[in-house]
Amino acid sequence: MFKQRIIYRLLLVFIIFALIFIIPFSLTIRKEINTVISEEEGLFPPSLKEKEILHKLTGRIMDKALVFSLYLFVFAFLLSMFFSRSLLKPIRELYRGAKALKEGNLGIRLEVGSEDELGEVTKSFNEMAEELEKKTEDLKTKESYIGAMMDPLWVVADNDTITDINPAFTKLFGYSRDEVIGASIYDFLDEENARIMKYQLDEREKGMSSIYEISIIAKDGSSMPVLITGAPIIKEGATIKKIGVLKDFRREHELRNAIKESRDYLETIMDSIEDELMVVDRNFKIIMANKTIRAIKGDKVIGDYCYSISHDMSAPCWREGEDCPAKRVFETGKIFKTVHQRKGAGGQRLFHEVVACPIKDSKGNVMHVIELRRDVTERKEYEEKIAQKNKELTAVNSISGILSRSLKAEEIFGNVMDKMLEMIGMNGGIIFLLDEAGRDLTCSYHKGVSEEFIRASGRMKLGEDIPGKVAATGQLITTSDIGTDQRIERSILKHSGMKGCCAIPIKGKERVVGVFCLFSFKTHIFTLEEERLMISIGEMTGIAIENIRLYEKMRRLYEYQQQRRIDDHKNLLSLSSRLAAALEIKAVMNSTLDLIRGSFRADLVWLLEIDNENFILKAASGLNIKEGEIIYEKGTSSIEWYAVEKKEPVVVPSVSSDSRFYLSDYVGSGYRSAICLPVYVGEKALGALTLYYAIPKELRDDDIHFLQIVSSIVAVALERSELYEKTLLEREMSDTILQSISDGIMTLDTGCKIISINKAAADMIGISPEKAAGNQCCEIFNYTEENTDFRWLIGNCLENALEKKSVNVEAQFTTINGKRLNVMISSSPVIDSKNRVAGVVHVLRNITREKEIDRMKTELVRTVSHQFRTPLSAIVGMTEMLINEDVRDEKKKEYLRTVLSEGIRLSNMVGDLLNIARIESGKEIFAEEEIDFAALLEDTKKLFSNAIERKKSRLTTVINGDIGGFMGDKEKIFQLMKNFVDNSIIFSDEGCNIGITLSRKADNIELKVSDTGWGIPEEDLPHMTERFYRGKYGQDVKGTGLGLALCKEIAVRYNGSITFDSKVGKGTTVTATFPFPKDHANRRKS
To answer: CA-to-CA distance for 924 and 602, rounded, in angstroms?
Structure first.
């Protein structure tokens, strides 16, 4: 076809060439002939005949020219055909090569016959074929890559239909290739995800790529989150298709939700903090902030710089000399605290305490910083006030020390004056004291002024000049410049060169006793703090002056009181000795009251104690009354109640005539006067001590004072006695508690010697408390070499405790009886009131059982995992083969039956485990009904009839005696019986004989299941009721290993037991014993 088209084109070219050549040629000849004829006619006019001849000549010439042109055309055509053979050969080769490419022979190459244009075409064809072969190979390689991709892939056409998928798509979503190809992409999306997909496909049309998340509906109807990487397939600048790589995003989706929940929880925690809290990244930008900051700075705080929020700065704060906590933490990686000060909107000082903590990655690099900002303005202001107060108190304490170190007026005045001048910065001062009459002020001490000035102004009347006015009014007067102060019209101080001046009243308890006058030769402005300090010093000095005066009075009375005190001391010493020596107050209280009665010549002395708000008799001298009798009930207007309420001694000169008080019948009317002293310890009222006289009696003040001392001694003795009784009770209680604690407790002194051990420790070690006391702690474990490591450990614990460190260590030791125990040693120091180690306490907790429980738990997990793995492996493997359609027909049913069987096996295993767990935890509720054992046996025979028939075995049942009236859970007993019989059938050969026997033995029901099966090896018998234990035959038969464990739990719930009697090859007898409840047994006996 190609060759014909070439030939046709050649012919067309020659025809056109001929027409272009012949027509002009013919017309030219014709024109020239006509021109010649015309010229000839012009010279010689022709006749008509000659014209006709000329016309015919023109026609014949034209005909001849046409024929000649045609011959010429044919000759040229033949020449072109001859020379066109070299053109047609490469064209035929190109045609052959094109046909081979069409048939799939990409390896064809054409021979280049010439170096002309066709040769170039042939070379281009070969290059095109070679490139096509490479491209095809690349496409095949890429197709294999796509098929091997783990992530699903789809290709979507312009009409949003799926044109291709890879095998991973089918594996993830369950759709086959035929179900997907040609389907709309929206068939696999819900409405919300379809909108997302529509937007993304529109983006592909624009030539844009993106990664986005949607959920695709799998074949099983579940919505599966995926992450899609979408890109357009562009050809010649236009999007022809779209490709998407789908990443299973379920795990990431769950993690993202968990991270979101964690972030929400973190933000909730941050927002619950009332202080300002923010998180700063390494660029000092805020990435998180709590609602406190957002409420102050607005929601746009996120993304802003921390120094902009904290300091209102546009540049980093550390460049301005601020101490930046975030920068410190990024540099050091440690927590940093500081306090920032700035001015508020009103110009007030604001203080913020900033605590910055690092957030580190797994490599220890600081990634972010948490800043907690707390407004501490009030605290700082309070601290400044406290500092000022401390300064004042320091000064006051200094003055107080000066005043308390001496009772000499001259020495006190000099030291106080020097200290005040130093503190306030004055040049001198004068101390004026008011005389006893309170009329004149006299200079008692001066400094910084001349004797002439003192002689002129050292004495003045009350109310005169500045010191006189201060003494009269008791008010402080200060002036920065006495010469210019308009308040002071006349003063001798004005002409002394003094400027700054203050006059301070020296106040005693009730009146002004003098004046401090301080002055400076410079102007001095007194602050409120200085005025307050000077007033305080004046008051302290006034009290000191009164104390000095009182001391002088007391010194004069000393000689008189000295002998009296010696006598009082003798009596007090005797009384104190007797009371202090007695722990039982009853033994000495009566003799003490006898001593008081004899010393003060009283007719009756009694001590009443407050008990339940009543006055009861504690002791009496001069009256025979039983201790504990109620003397005055609550609310009675007695002398004792009145003294306790007043908290001071009450003297009643005439008891009978004083209508305020009611006298007890025990006292009667035989007494004329009385004195009552309240008995107090601190603010606690214990009772009252009362002395009654049959005659009028007046006591001196020193006698009353002595009785007050006696009442105080009695109060201390009563309190001490009560504390002693409480101490004995508490000690007994402590010993009882210590001995009742299940953990072993050892107390040691600082010399590492045992003070005591409790009963639990004695039982644990195997040594008596008496034998252990006084021994070195480590030595009592020295009875065996096995305890060497334990002795070293307990010694190390002791050393740590003596260094005030509490330690907990696990260890093993061997008791005297040879038993190996695991213990937890907890050693703690005993700290006394002076923060010194007074001893050590070792607590030895026996954790042997806990260790065994941990081992059993580990073994249980390992066994459960092993038991679950086999059926699960079968289920998973066969299910996968069924899904992949690797098996068909009968094999498929067989596999399904196996999956069902293994699933039932798993279900039974889980059910048995749950039953055991519920029974062990006590959550399983056992029914309480009378059990019909005969009916249970019939149900058992029916249940196993088919299994017995298949095994060609025989099942017999026997009931011996009266077994009626047993109350229990019928289903649980039936389950136990089923498990016994099921084991007999499983672990036996054909023709086995199985027997069930129910008997009454005393107050027990005995269930026996015997068989002639394989028997149980002797080494397996101790483990038969352990969970998952299947023994020697476990590999030969299927089972869970939980049946007998469940039976054991049921038996234990009924306080029963299970025993095994078996011989290999002979058979097995399993016996379960259930006791009747005690009340039922008693009813039967009656």
So the answer is: 80
pLDDT at 872: 74
CA nearest 1006: which of 1050, 1071, 959?
1071
DSSP state of 1035: G
Domain final residue, candidates 728, 754, 787:
728
Question: Is 80 exceeded by the pLDDT of residue 581?
Answer: no
What share of residues in the chain are helix, strand, coil (percent, to 5)?
Answer: 50, 25, 25
Q: Are residue 759 and residue 811 in the same domain, yes or no?
A: yes
**In sequence order, which residues have a C-beta less than 8 Å from that of residue 827 and are 6 or more positions away?**
794, 797, 798, 800, 801, 806, 807, 808, 809, 840, 841, 842, 843
Q: Are residues 972 and 1079 in the same domain?
A: yes
Question: Per-residue pLDDT for 583 more than 60?
Answer: no
- Residue 1015, sorted as left (phi over 0), alpha (psi -120 to 50) or beta, turns out to be left
Which residues constitute the domain of residue 636? 582-728
Whether 461 and 409 share a structural domain: yes
Residue written as token pair 């708000």: 613
Look at residues 828, 846, 864 and tell me which one is the last residue of a structural domain. Answer: 846
Q: What is the pLDDT of residues 278-337, one digit of tens each?
A: 898 988 888 888 888 888 777 778 888 888 777 777 788 887 777 888 888 888 889 998
**Same domain for 156 and 104:** no
Calpha distance 884→635 (Å, rounded): 99
735 domain residue, yes or no:
no
User: Are 125 and 232 members of one domain?
Assistant: no
Residues 1022-1039 have pLDDT tens digits of: 777 776 666 666 656 666
List CB contacts of 150: < 8 A, sequence separation 6 or more: 168
Cβ(335)–Cβ(292) under 8 Å? no
Indicate whether 547 and 614 sit together in one domain: no
Q: How far apart, in whole angstroms, are the C-alpha atoms of residue 674 and residue 656?
A: 10
144/763: higher pLDDT = 763
Q: 725 or 803: whose pLDDT is higher?
A: 803
CB hemisphere CA count around 523 (13 angstroms): 5
| Residues 503, 526 contacting (CB under 8 angstroms) | no
Calpha distance 899→871 (Å, rounded): 8
CA distance 644 to 647: 5
Helix or strand or coil: residue 102?
helix
Residue 326's H or E segment, with its range, is helix 325-332
